[in-house]
Specification:
Elements: E1 5-6, H1 8-16, H2 26-34, E2 36-39, E3 42-45, H3 57-64, H4 67-74, E4 76-78, H5 87-105, E5 110-119, E6 123-132, E7 152-156
Helix pairs in contact: 2-5, 3-4
């Protein structure tokens, strides 16, 4: 997997990460296999959102700023809930498989974010979120991740270097 953007905390984790082959746990594989659901101009995981219409735009604007913010909030998975071990490695593999699935179904670009936290009291927390990339809508500035305390990795498939070695 090509890391497009990450903060120093994630770079430190990736430096020590030994790339191994993993099979996605069944529930995560099912989420990707079911694909995506398009409601109006928004894209969601089919397994998580089946509505054909969106909430009123005034509500979306008030609560989430814009459609990308709404998508990002709805398209949020705690990956540790879907696997029993190797959370970080499985999460990285999921991110890579997600981008492949997205690119096989859409010509539009996507912004995907994986954040990680290993809390001694609560354990590992691996959160994956995404939204369709839209002009003038920014949920997380993927060019400026250095101020995030927890490790974070962001992929924007519109970057010219996506997939570069």
């Amino acid at each position: 997997m090509t890391t497009i953007r990450s903060n120093p905390a994630m770079e430190e984790l990736l430096k020590d990460f030994k790339n191994r082959t993993f099979v996605l746990p069944g529930k995560l594989q099912e989420i990707l296999s079911r694909g995506f659901h398009v409601a109006e101009e928004a894209v969601f995981f089919e397994s998580e959102f089946q509505e054909d219409s969106l909430p009123d735009f005034d509500l979306i604007k008030y609560a989430y700023t814009d459609l990308s913010g709404y998508e990002f909030a709805v398209n949020k998975l705690h990956l540790e809930d879907y696997c029993e071990a190797h959370y970080f490695a499985v999460a990285l593999f999921f991110v890579d498989e997600f981008v492949k699935k997205w690119k096989s179904q859409f010509s539009e670009d996507v912004v995907a974010v994986f954040s990680y936290n290993n809390n001694p009291e609560f354990g590992e927390n691996c959160v994956f979120q995404f939204h369709k990339k839209r002009k003038n809508e920014v949920v997380i500035d993927v060019h400026d991740l250095k101020d995030f305390l927890n490790p974070i990795l962001a992929i924007d498939t519109s970057f010219a270097d996506y997939g570069a070695k």
